[in-house]
């Protein structure tokens, strides 16, 4: 069983159970949107000592939790499971995700930084992402950046230091 050095932040105990089934790893549970200062302090401490990977559900509450953590600890790592891979019979989430999708997400962790803008808004528009949902989703998938609208994609591409040339290369258009 592969050991993961970083602590993985998940939403609940069923998420922890699936992570522990797949990896030798420690988790911190946010208890969903009930995340509080005590949990954020714990995440901050874990990040300083071992590093942290955030793996929340691919839904709006999961994004809110991720954003709260990023505000407090900007240097954390992110793993994203695609929405299509996390749909159960009655729920959407990490606990319902295909095991292969969770493994892939943790093998393709990204780190965001707000320091440098590698992609201008004009370059982003020239990539024809805004008018094409299919193209936007393809870029999210290629770079393992989760899911969101065009504005979120622009922000995440910059935070991950991905340039127009990087995108064209991955799309096979360069």
UniProtKB/TrEMBL annotation:
GO terms for biological process: rRNA processing. Keywords: Cytoplasm, Endonuclease, Hydrolase, Magnesium, Metal-binding, Nuclease, Ribosome biogenesis, RNA-binding, rRNA processing, rRNA-binding. The keyword RNA-binding applies. One of its GO terms (molecular function) is rRNA binding. One of its GO terms (cellular component) is cytoplasm. It catalyses: Endonucleolytic cleavage of RNA, removing 21 and 42 nucleotides, respectively, from the 5'- and 3'-termini of a 5S-rRNA precursor. Pfam families: DUF4093, Toprim. This is Ribonuclease M5. It comes from Longibaculum muris.
